[in-house]
Amino acid sequence: MKDVYLFSGFLGSGKTSMLTDVIRQLKEKDLKPAVIMNELGKLPFDSQAVEKDIPLKEMLEGCICCSGAEKTEAQIQSLLLDSDFDVLIIETTGAAHPVEALDAVYSPLFAEHLNVKGIVTVADSKLWLNRETLTPQVRSLFMEQIRHAHLLLANKTDLLTEAEQAQVVYELQGFNPHAFILQTTNGRVPLRLLEDLKATAQVDKQDVVKAPIASMHLGSRLVEFKDVDFTQEQFEDWVRTLPETVYRMKGYVPIEGVKNPMLFQYAYGMVQWLPEYVKMPAKLVIIGEDVSSLNVIGLN
Fold this sequence. Notes:
Elements: E1 2-9, H1 15-28, E2 33-38, E3 56-59, H2 69-82, E4 87-91, H3 98-105, E5 114-124, H4 125-129, H5 136-147, E6 151-155, H6 162-175, E7 180-183, H7 191-195, E8 203-205, E9 218-224, H8 232-240, E10 246-253, E11 262-267, E12 270-274, E13 283-289
Parallel strand pairs: 1-4, 1-5, 2-3, 2-4, 5-6, 6-7, 8-9
Antiparallel strand pairs: 9-13, 10-11, 10-13, 11-12
Helix pairs in contact: 2-3
C-alpha cells in the first residue's frame, strides 16, 4: 500500500514550504514521493517548487474537491498505473475544506491500495491570533481546516512573542484536542511525526470482525457488500439514520432487482443514484467522525 498525506492550510500559511522540506526528507530516506498539487488559479505557480524527477499531477482552479473529485480520482489512478512512488502527498488549495479534499482521495476503485495517514494542517499563528478580522465565511474555513487536522503545525512562530506563542498553542489545543501540535517556522516538520500518524482507513467485510474505533476523530471506512439483499428505499432509510458526523459516502451499492451495483453519492444529507452499465465492485467509502462504530446496512 502507498502512504498518503493530505496537506491542508489556509492561503499563505506555508504549505508549499512544508512540502519541499518533506520531499527533501523522503529523498534522504530513499523514498520516492509523488505529488498532486491543487491550485486556485489557472497557472501552476506553486508546482514550480516540485523537482522535475518527481511524479506530479496538477489540479488547477481549485478542482480537487466538490465537482472535481472525479478528476482527482483519475489523477490518482494514473499515478498508480504509470508512476513508481512510495508516498503520495496531496497539497490542497488554501480555499479547500479538508473533508471535501479527503473525499477526493477515496475511491472504492483503489481505496485498498492507499493508506491515508492523515491530514497535516499548517496554521499561520499570527492569523490565528487575528482571526476575528476575517470575514465570517473565511474564518469558518480557516477554523475547519484546523479542526480536522491530525497533525497541526503552528507556523510562523518567529513572528510572535513567547507569550503569544504560548497563547496560540493553548488555544489550538483547546480547539482541536485530537491533533499533535508542533510550533514551526518555514513549515519545517520532522518526517518521523508524519510517519507516526495513524492510518484513517478501515476495511470492513461481512466475514471479518470489525476493526476497533480509530484513534483519529476524522476517518474513513471501506465497506464491501457480499450477498446482500436490500432495496433502494431500504438503503435510503438507513442513510437517514446516520448522524451528522457522517460527511461523505460514495461507492457502488447493490440494489435488489438491478443488474449492476449503482453509483451512490452522499453529501450534507443529499443522496444521488446513477445507473452503472459496467459491473463495478460493490464497495462503499464512508467519511466522517467515529465511522468505525456505525452499524452498516447489510453488515449487521
